[in-house]
Amino acid sequence: MVPEGWSERPLSDLADYINGRAFKPTDWSKDGLPIVRIAQITNPSAIPNRYSGSDINDRAPTRTVSVTKRRAPRNNAVLALLILFSRTALAHAQTDPPAALSFTNATVESGFTSLLDLGGHGIQVADIDGDGLLDVYVTHIFDPKQDRPDLLFRNLGGSPQRFEEIGVVAGVSDDGFYALELEDGTVEELSEESHAAVFADFDNDGDLDLFNGHTWSGHHRLYRNEGDARFVDISDSAGIDVRDLGPRGVGAADLDGDGLLDIVVTAWQDFIPNVYMNRGGMRFKRSRLKGDADPSFANQGLALVDISGDGKPDIALSAFEHVPGVGVGAIAILTNESPRFVENTAFTGLEYAQTTSDFRGTNGYSFQDIDNDGDLDVVITGFHGSKLYRNNGEGRFNLVRLFEGVHYTAAFGDVDNDGDLDLYLAGDGGIYLNDGSGAFRIVGEIGLEGIGTDARSAVFADMDNNGSLDLLIASKQGPNTFFRNNLDSAASGNWLGVSLTGPSGELGAIGATVSLFESGELVGYRVVQSTTGYCSQDPARQHFGVDAAGTYDLLVRFQNRSEVTRAGLSPGQVVTIGGTSDTETTPQ
After folding, report:
1. In sequence order, what DSSP letters do the residues of 292-320 get, joined into one string?
2. Is pLDDT of 582 > 70?
3. Residue 264 forms beta bridges with which residues?
4. pLDDT beyond 70 at 396
5. Which of 73, 307, 413, 437: CA 20 to 30 A from 478?
């Protein structure tokens, strides 16, 4: 029986969520027939705002839900839903997951250990030893007077899959303190802790080197990969300076199109980001980023990706604080007009408004194609919600959704291998599944339990080479975690991997685009990037969920516009494409 004052609507009306109308099905009478109830709330100030915004349906809990009715003068009436929830309610409204989608917390079993004093920030995933298994580097930072090493986990494979921590042996633990001479002539010892690092083939020799940005000391390190998971510090001979204080994000991209990867190091407030231009032979020339970078930005994560569509990587900067009159909110899009980078934020339509009195701004960008239309959409994470923008195909973006809450990283990956990219916001207990059109619904109770407090980075990667994407998370105030995807893709074969080497011999081919076709129709589009979110790096090997019975064609376009095609590909394999050994078309 419906109490007096309530209205009853059929379950089919769930779609009628517009202009504040929200329907939540509940079996009030315990007769197995869920109905929905709408309350006429006449005092808007009495409604808790924890579930305000465009994703109220996703944030409403699913347990112990009730609604109530309040009275006030009629001229203030608005239609709304007041949601009261128990302590056991989920943080998001979560639909039932697909039967096959679940994860197992394999952190302890796999040997993915954390430091006792925590501090996890960045996760970089790459095959450092060329054995076909993805390895993991985790950066740590907490305090300039404390000492936290970075951890390198070598993937040993096996069933169950195992890691071995080899940071010290490999020479990249970056442990200890550095004596830095300050401007007043005094010397201070600051820890070598770091927010972010990046793996990239800086010398085009077919293996991945490592650049690590040290936040407190500015004593950044460049390590050349010597093979067999061993690195040697060549920072001094390479021209890496000790003046870049406070960086959070770092990344690699070929900024000037010469076939060599350059390095971008962000800066904290009152400084301009630095660029290390690759001159070949593992030698770099350092300079301030030329153009419109604003020194008032306290930079967080960055993205290096072609936003304008001219084939050159642009730079997207995020800012810890909202600076009045600067940029569009706490973001800046700098278009590559080599050698200068020109501020072009307003043209793109991207913005990040300050919605509360909180002075904090944004944390990072995650660019991926959510609707398989051949261009990059983006999620901007920050302290005023995470914003999903859709690309209209001309380098302009339209806001399509706001995800409430504070997040540092948005990770994309096809976790259910249904052909579209799903979304995970670092720290959440559920995953947003893509319906194929770029619309997302969150599913929970899939085994993402035990995530550390204050999650900073997240990466989807196939760590056991079974064709399904696992999940790694770094947390500042809790343990780092590794979740194994229980999807049996090895048996079903509903996946396809693509591993690239660029025309100049660069392993990974950062900046390349990969288009997947079935019967002439585009069914997947990826861009190889060196950095995403706050301090994360996705693996260069690209993953596509596909129909196991299908046949597929690939088109790879490298940054120099040369192309490689492969036709008639069967699923269930990693396709290796070398830019120098494959037949290429003439650069466009």
Report:
1. S--TT--EEEEEEE--SSSSS-EEEEEES
2. no
3. 251, 275
4. yes
5. 413
